[in-house]
Amino acid sequence: MAIWLVRAGKKGEYESKFLEGKRVYLTWDFLADNLTTIDTKEEMQARLASLYPDAKHKTLIAWRSQIWPFVHEMQIGDWVVLPSKYKPVVHVGRIAGGYIHVPKGPNPFYHYRAVEWLKIDLPRDEKHFDPAIIYSFGSALTICRVQKNNAEAHINALAANEWKPLPPGKKSSINIHITGGENGDNPPEDVDINYLAETQISQFLTSKFKGHAMANLIDAIFRAKGYETYVSPPGPDGGVDILAGPQPFGFGQPRLCIQIKTGAPADTKAVSELEGVVKQFSAEHGILISWQGFKQSVEKLRPQRFFSIRLWGQREIIRELLQHYDQLEEEMRALIPLKRIWVLTSVEGE
Hints:
This protein is α+β, with helices and mostly antiparallel strands. The chain contains eleven helices and 13 strands.
């Protein structure tokens, strides 16, 4: 059986739809044709060229190499892995149905395969996966097959172990190959460097800022953003870890109540409690920070609470850290030794 890596939109915006609908979709805009009527890869590329006339030749090859296997090579029973963009986890399931065409969409949901999700929120860490497999999750492709040696055996072993970490001797060898399809397609730009860098930073922060130490990191970020802060000491915090207000002296607005969770994904109870704390402290807004992310019930509250409560997971924390790194106090920069580098991206059409 094959292992397919599938992404739910460029920014993970379709993740909930994939999980709740128990499906994986092709998410190319306006690709409404019935793709089973296309018999060869050459025909597929010609159809894509007619639909996307401004796309470069190499781009069309890359798209074809992802779309073709979704239609023609995925098999019922194959593994499917969906890396989350919102938290350091992957969702694992099996393909449960053949290719389905939905001509009326809506855009971009014209094509799907049914999936039986077997494990939601499997930690993307070295307790569960070898570094090479984590590296494979950094593919920049929307759809690709993960191949080589023991990748499938590794997933099978995790499933047999009820998705608990494997003993060291049970892990797969570090030899992973990524390809668009089974018949030799090898699209360019295989790896998302940003994703891999964020994964490495995430693993470092997880080991460095455990428990109350995470409050020190968040405090440093808000100070770098220009806020005066008060950090609650370790122990019971009355529902708030950090109080923050703009200069001078923190008397400006907006006044913020910040609650930090480092254990399990935060639930709706944590949101309700923070809303009560915001009123108690006469603040304007609250920020709920959860290093392990949020339950799906909380994700649904994002738009409803947009003007009162903000939700920060690892992605938001790392984004803010990188944006304000140069403004961090010297002591905090020494704890997090980052270096900015410039990397040349591939140039299409060469």
